Structures are given as structure tokens and as C-alpha cells.
Amino acid sequence: MQVLSAHPRQKTGFSACEPLPCRLGQISFMNSLPVVLPIERGYVPLDAEVVLASPARLNALFAQGALDIGAMSSFYYLSQDNLTLVPGLSISCLGPVGSVLFFARVSPPELSGKKILVSSQSATSVNLLKILLLEHYGVEPLFIACDEPDLVLADVSGALIIGDRALGLDEVWEGRFYRQDLGQWWHETYDLPMVFGLWAARSEWVEGNPEKFEEISAALVLAKKLGLSELFASVLSESGRRSGLSQSRLEGYFRGQLNFELSQGHFSGLSLYRSLCAKYNLFGS
User: Fold this and answer.
1) Domain range list for the chain
2) Which long-range contacts (CB under 8 A, 24 or more apart) does 277-280 make?
3) Phi and psi of 158, rounded to 5°?
4) Phi, psi of 106 (to 5 degrees)
5) Are strands 22-27 and 69-73 parallel, antiparallel or unpaired?
6) What is this structure's pTM?
7) Is residue 3 very low, low, confident or very high in pLDDT (cuts 50, 70, 90)?
8) Is the pLDDT confidence value at 158 over 60?
9) Which of 84, 142, 196, 241 could hold 206 in an S-S bridge, CB 3.0 to 4.6 Å?
């Protein structure tokens, strides 16, 4: 296994008879460590070039044909018709997710037309916030995408913070601003899992490499199982090194907030999310 940056090699410069390694995209956030760490450290052998990047960057690489299989935002998966889902694996929640947080200076009904900074790294979370604000309050703020939304320094009314940064800022900002965990908001509204990320492959690649698809799919699911059991202590240790958060907070995050399954309930949640995105024409935005 070779781990690359967010810029995988293009399929050029190889002999016509030399098989090209599979290009596997993996999310670089801590929420994916139970799947990423066992593969990175060689506990799950995998013949692939691994590209670590944000969900938005992985979405773009899939769109460019620069990845064969890997993680992506649910929004991107639902917007495409040429992807084959990896079974049994997702990044979801069945309540609070802990790392997709909306903070605002005013209450949601007052946000119509106001500026909200949103992360440019996750299409699923941004569109989820649009849906929930429209469904509950009928408000349409002005969304401004940036790498690191900051409600403290910027002259804006709200900020959507995701990933590792959300975990770090939660205790700092809670109590200062209106706070809403989008996973909890979704689950309390619809009583369904919220699926933020999925693993899938380009269907054209799957057709030409069916055995490789099965092999990598099985390896990803095995990595998840190991990352949440025998290697969980290593996942906590690496997460603590990256974030500075306590082991008890991180254990609550991975075991009590994140969910990595892909059940019928998850598919129902995905279906509802797709229909709400279509209702508000978000796939074309």
C-alpha cells in the first residue's frame, strides 16, 4: 500500500501490460480513523494507492476520474448515477454526531438573508443545514463557503463547523452562541440515521475489476471492525495526538456518536435526504 497526498497519479506512463494499482480515496478527518488506521499501519493488507483528503477534495477527484474507489460525501454519491456502493460501511449517526455543528449569533428564525459561513469541505453537511433551516423555519440565509468558518472574527450571523475543528471548538463556543448539532437535529426531526459519508466505486471500474472491488470492499469492512475493536486503543491514541481531546471524550465520540454501519434504516435516511435535496433543487445548485 502506498499513501499519497491529495494529488494521485494520473494513469499515464505505465506499460500497456502492467496492471495499474487501484486508487483508493480515504477521508483525512479523525472520524474515519477506525477505517483508515488499520490499513495505514498494515493490519489490513491492501494493494492500492491510498489518497488522504477532505470529503470535498475526494468528491472532486472522483469527478475527475482520478480515483477508482473510496470514501465520498453522501451528497456527491446521491448526485451521481455511475457509482457502485461498498456494502456495510458508512459514516453516520443515530443522534448527535459531535463534529457537524452550527453556531449562530441569533435564533434560526432571524437568519433569513443573513450571512452564514459554511465549510467548503463537506457538501453533505452544508446541504443538510439548508434543508433543516428551510423545513423548520422557511429561512434562506446567504451561505458563504470557506476553509475555516469563524463566527468570532467574521462579521456574519452564523457558522457551520465540521470535522476535527468542530470537536475542538465545541467547548469553546458552547454557551456563547446558539448551538445545534446537525445529526441530532436530523434524528429528532425524522427518527432516521443521518448518513454523512459513504464508500463507493466508479461503476465502470467495478465492471472491469469485479474481484478487486470485492477484495477492497471486504478489506474496508474488516478495517472498520478492527478499528472499533482490537485496534480501538490505537485509534484513540492517534485521535488524542491530533486533537488534544481527552480519551473519554474521544471514546464517547467514536462509540456513542459516530455510527459506521449501513443498514436498511440508513438507506431510508439516505432516501429521505435525497428527496429533500431534490425538493429544494440542491443537486443543481
Assistant:
1) 2-92+194-267, 100-190
2) 277/75, 277/78, 277/127, 277/131, 280/130, 280/131, 280/134
3) -160, 165
4) -130, 170
5) parallel
6) 0.91
7) low
8) yes
9) 84
- The beta strand positions in 54-107, using DSSP E, are 69-73, 83-93, 100-104
What's the rounded Cα separation, in Å, for the pair 67 and 195? Answer: 22
Report the candidate in 173, 246, 200 with the shortest Cα–Cα distance to residue 82.
200
Topology adopted by domain 2-92+194-267 = D-Maltodextrin-Binding Protein; domain 2 (3.40.190)
The two domains 2-92+194-267 and 100-190 share their CATH topology (first three levels equal):
yes
Give phi and psi for 191, each to the nearest 5: 55, 40
For residue range 221-252, what is the model confidence (pLDDT) as tens digits?
A: 999 999 999 999 999 999 999 999 999 999 99
Letter for the amino acid at 233? A
Query: 3-class DSSP state for residue 282?
Result: coil
The model's pLDDT over 15-47, given as tens digits with 9 standing for 90+, comes to 344 456 899 999 999 999 999 999 999 999 999
Judging by DSSP bridges, how do beta strands 83-93 and 69-73 pair with one another?
Answer: unpaired
Contact call for residues 84 and 257 (beta carbons, < 8 A): no
pLDDT of residue 75: 97
Q: What is the pLDDT of residue 51?
A: 97
Helices marked H in the chain: 33-40, 55-63, 74-79, 123-137, 163-173, 182-190, 203-208, 210-227, 232-243, 247-251, 264-279
User: What cell does 68 get?
Assistant: 477508482
Q: What is the mean pLDDT of the chain?
A: 92
The third-level CATH classification (topology) of the domain covering 100-190 is D-Maltodextrin-Binding Protein; domain 2 (3.40.190)
